[in-house]
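[09:14] KT: can someone run the structure on this one? pasting the chain below
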Amino acid sequence: MIPKGNIPGICVDCGHNIMYSKKSMQTHGELLKKHRCPKCGNFALKTLSKDV
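[09:31] RB: done, structure tokens below
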């Protein structure tokens, strides 16, 4: 399950918005590629954060 937090993200497949948190040493991509969308179950999560 993706960790809850305050960084916005979206599922590219279904458009479901998520909020997640990451560790300081992780990149957004490293974290999101390991988690499925909670709505559709696909590995299609993308960050909406401008701090990339």
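[09:33] KT: thanks! Strands lie at 7-11, 17-20, 45-47.
[09:34] RB: yep, looked fine to me
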